[in-house]
Structure formats: C-alpha cells, structure tokens
Amino acid sequence: MKRIFYTILILTISIGASAQKKIIDKLFSSDTTRHNSFLPVPLIGFSQEAGFEFGAVGIYSFYVDKTDKTIRASQIYGVAFTSTKGVSQLSGKGDIWSKGNKWHSLYEARFSNIPFNFYGLGSATKKDDEDLIVQTRWRVGAEIEKQLTKFYYPGIGVEFESLNFKDKEIGGIFDLENQATLNDKDGGRYSFLKITQLLDTRNSNTYTTKGFYGRFRYGYAPDFFGGNNFSGNLFTTDLRYFKALNKNLVLANQAFYEAIRSNKDIPFYMLRQMGNDQIMRGYYLGRYRDKNYMALQTELRYRIIPRLGMVAFGGVGAVYNNGFLPKENLKPSYGIGARAFFDLDKSLALRLDYAWGEKPTGENRISGLYISLGESF
C-alpha cells in the first residue's frame, strides 16, 4: 500500500545488564498476585500524511477494592503524540468497575488533529480516488450502568462531538460534482443521549476464556445545533461468545452491527466506517462507509507460555445502504498475531496483529499492521 495503514513501533529501552535481566525474568515469571499495574511505552509511528509520530501510550490497570475477589479489573488508557507534519492527538479512556461489580462506568475524552484519506461513499470505492482531508475533532462521553441481576446492567449515557474538515487536495473526489450530496463538508456538532443494555457472563473482562457478552446501545441526537448538524438515531449491537477448547486454547467470536438513521441528510462523517485495530482488521478506517455496518469475526487464542501467546483470526464484513443484512459486497478479513502478557493477574497484553483483506480489481491486496494494548475484543 502507498500509505502505511496504521504502523506503530513500540520501543522498550533497557539500560545496563541488570535491567535486561529483570525484563527477561519478568517475561518468564509466573507472578499472578493481585496488584495495580502501569505500563508506559514510548510510541513511534509513521504515515505519509503525518510523517514520523512521537509520543507515549500507557495503560493503568487496578482494582477498586483489592480485597474483593469477585471485582473485575478497571483500566485507564492514555495516548499522546505529535508528528513532524503537525499531527497531534491526546486521548484518555476509563473502564471502571465498582466493588461487587454493582456499577460499571465508561469515560472518554479525545482531541485529534489528524489527516485521513477520503475515498467516496459505498462499498466499491477506488484507491486512485484517495483524497487527503484534515480532521480536527473534539469528543467527550460517559456511560454508567447499574447491576440489576447477576449478569444484567441497564444504563444511560451522553456523548458530544465537534468536527471540522479541510480538504488538502482541491479538485479531488471530495469536491467532485458526484460528491455534491456530501452533507456538512466543513464539519459539524452533535450530542447523543444514550440508553445502554449490557448482558455479561464473562469470567474476565480483560482475557475472557468463557462466557457471553452482549451490549446494545441506542443513541438519540436532538436537533440542538440546527442547520446541517446531525440529528437522528444510532443503533449499535455488539455480541461476543467465548469458549475454552482446552487449557491453553480459546475460541472467541464476535458479531457487530451499527446503523445510522435521520430524517435529514446524514453528514458524511456520521456514516459507519469499516476497519480499525479491533474489527475488520486490515482495512483503512473509512475506505468504505455507508449507513449500515455489519461484521462477523472469530479468533483462536493460544497461550504458548503464561507470558506469550499467538492468535489466528478471520471474518467478513460489509457497509451497505439499505436493509438489516447486506445482500452483497461482503469483504474478508484474516490474519495472525502475537501477544506479550505483562500482567498475569489480569492477563493484560501488548498486541501485535497483521491482517489482510480483499484484493480490489487493479489494486494490491488490502492489509495492515497493528500494535496495541489488550485483546481486539
């Protein structure tokens, strides 16, 4: 691919022989004590639009009450980077479980100023139509859920987002006449009021070996801001099932569906986008976008030793305009990966995946490399 999809090289620096020995001892140790952990990692990345990226990524994992043996691990994630071409991002996420798992809350705050490639709308866009756009984005959100039964958590949430776009290649597909129906090209704002429903029988929320997870979200965006700003509805369903095939081998499955609806023209940036480091790996986020998005994926996870693992995964997905299920243009996603577990108690890992997708006519096969924290789902 002309553009490296999302490539991050994580460098861990050790000074002196004693420090190197500690890392080796840690890698092959079997310490599973309940403790809080923090992993800060230097981040170096590269893309043609952003140039070289420099920053840090980290995850803090902890128990709200260490004496509660049933409590799930909470995590706070943070990412900060800048680049040689002025790209910047600062973001944080929180996933918090209270004592006894009676309350579950999610938080997010993000600022980004990042170029991205726009290819048009639908599931048959072309690489040659690639058009560089710069997006400035502010996003904040929160959800809180209360346990009603052992596995059932209903909840509510709010979300606000403000986006601004600038076309860096005048005369490209973003400006063409057949794209004149693109609504709100300069950007817009919206606020979601959300209702959430969670069914969760997993034995762990960080490295699941058995159980079911089902999250349903409905978001309503009132016409707070008028004009071309989005108002309408967003429906999201995320279903996951996990089964241990033996002591070291786990089968993980996921079905994902999203749909956007409005009585007004839908801004192009609200359309669902295929591809990221979690679902439909291998596809550039936004290469294909439309009103509906469906994906199915399965993953085999094998723990070679407590500190190291490997995976193989595959799936299919599609974006499409009408109907509940896609009738055509299903696209493949498959690949392999490795895991390095830095916290055995919570089974938290550094994740390395390489994925392949379809081979569009006249183009190279779509593919992507991902280095991240935690499992893909």
From TrEMBL:
Under InterPro entries, the record lists: Bac_surfAg_D15
Instruction: Extract the signal peptide range.
Output: none
Q: Which residues form the Bacterial surface antigen (D15) domain?
A: 124-377
Which cellular component terms (GO) are annotated to the entry? outer membrane
Which Gene3D superfamilies does the record match to this protein? membrane protein fhac: a member of the omp85/tpsb transporter family (2.40.160.50)
What is the annotated localization of this protein?
Membrane
Cite the entry's keywords alphabetically.
Membrane
Write down the superkingdom of origin: Bacteria
What's one Pfam family the UniProt record gives for this protein? Omp85
Q: Is Membrane found in the keyword set?
A: yes
State the name under which the record lists this protein: Bacterial surface antigen (D15) domain-containing protein
Q: Which organism is it from?
A: Pedobacter psychrophilus
